[in-house]
Every structure is written in C-alpha cells, then in structure tokens.
Amino acid sequence: MNHVTPPACVALALVLLAAIGCGGGGTQTLTVFADASLTGTFGSLGKTFEAAHPGVAVRFDFGGSGALAQRIVRGAPTDLFAAAGTAAMRESGAPSPRVFARDSLQIAVPKGNPAHVANLRDLTAPGVRVALCAEPAPCGAGARTALAAAGVTVTPVGPDQNGPDQNGGKRDGAKALAKVRLGEADAALVYRTDIRAAGAADGALEAVDLPETAGAVEDYLIATVPGTERLALTREFVDLVLSSEGRKVLAAAGFTPVTG
User: Fold this and answer.
1) Are strands 205-209 and 98-110 parallel, antiparallel or unpaired?
2) Residue 54 vs residues 17, 29, 242: alpha-carbon distances, Å
3) pLDDT tens sequence across 80-124
4) Are residues 36 and 171 in contact, defined by beta-carbon separation less than 8 angstroms?
5) What pTM value is reported for the model?
6) Which residues pair with 257 in a beta bridge?
7) CA-CA distances (angstroms) from residue 91 to 73, 84, 203, 238, 246?
C-alpha cells in the first residue's frame, strides 16, 4: 500500500533540514595581537567577552609589541592590536589608538630589603648588585631613561642576563627578577607588573616606589587594525577593556588603568 506524505510534513522536514545545515556554523573569531605582558589580563577579559558574546571566540597572539607590529605591517590577519609603547603602535599603522593603561618602574628587592635600597642612588652603593633588563626590552629602555634622569650610573651584574625569548627579542623583567630570587642580585629595576606577577605567589619580592621615574612610564595602547571585518566586535572589546571590569582586572595585575 502506498503512503502519500502530506505537504505540510514535507515543508516541516525541509525547514528542519535547513536548520540542521545552518546550525553550528555561526562562530566568529576575534583575533587580538597583544603584548606578552598582557597575557594574564587579556586572557581573563577574553573569557568575559566570550561569555557575553555567544558564538564569538577570542583568539590571542601574545608576543613582543615590536615583533607583533612588524607582523601587522607584513599583512598578518588580525582585528585588534594592544601594544606596550607608542613606537610599536605607530609602526603598526593602526589609527586612533586609545591609551588604556600605564606601567611604572619600581625597584624589586628580596623580602626584607637586606641591602636597604630606598632610591635609585642607593643602587650605586658599594656591594649592591643590580639586575637590569636588556635594552630592547621596555623595562631596559625605561630603566636607562630613569637612571639617566637621576644622574645615576649602574653596572649590572652578568654580561647579559636576558637572552633571546621565543620571539627572537630581548626581554624581560622576569629574568632580571630571577637574579634577585636566586640571590645573584640585591635589586632589579623593572616594571610594577613584573614584580606583581613574580612576587604575588610567595611574597619573596618587595617593591620600592620611585618618584624619580615619573618620566619612565610605559603607555599601553589599543587600536582596531585597518581592514578588519569585525569592526563592531573590536569596538566592543575595547569598551570592555575601558570598562569598570577591565580597569579592575588591569589594576589587580599592577597596571594603572586609563579611561580618558
């Protein structure tokens, strides 16, 4: 006996097949190039963004700001760039960047500060061993700016405590701080966020504020990369970074949030 399928059932079946065919294929990916020092903060904000934007995945590519800027110039596909320092942002060609945070230099010392380092001039005291970042790293350039402004000359321990990182650059505060942790240096001149990240786990490090280094502050900027097809999403991610939630996450990592 032949059975004839009612037209209504056929129509319903076609709708269901169309729905199945379209399901699961709506995910968008927002690609963000960001300085390696933002790994923790942006990783957290990325999860917050994904939770508020079902169907959107945030993919981060962390590294040295200069290297990331060069990749953008060479045409690497990305939607958003967050850089440490105006030079890298300018090199990338991304227009209208916003400053969203700043990082300031401090002197890292072992717990108890046995060498009694209270300012930059104390770094020149006899017997005080100082670890500095290599010049290409932001903390290296910042340290030299601060020392020059204070009229202080320091000979760092070791020929070069900062070998090449995975991106071929010279970084970072972590290697200078390792010298302090290992007892190979009495102090290291690095950024506040470096000390917060390295010393938060066990309290082995303390920080000495430096009013002399007001001119050695690193700006962090964010901008949409020209040509992105996800302009609305990039704007919403920037809004998150500048929001109260973004400021909270940045401050917890040692940054000074900027919302102007």
Assistant:
1) antiparallel
2) 23, 11, 21
3) 999 998 999 999 999 999 999 999 999 999 999 999 999 999 999
4) yes
5) 0.78
6) 101
7) 8, 12, 38, 20, 26
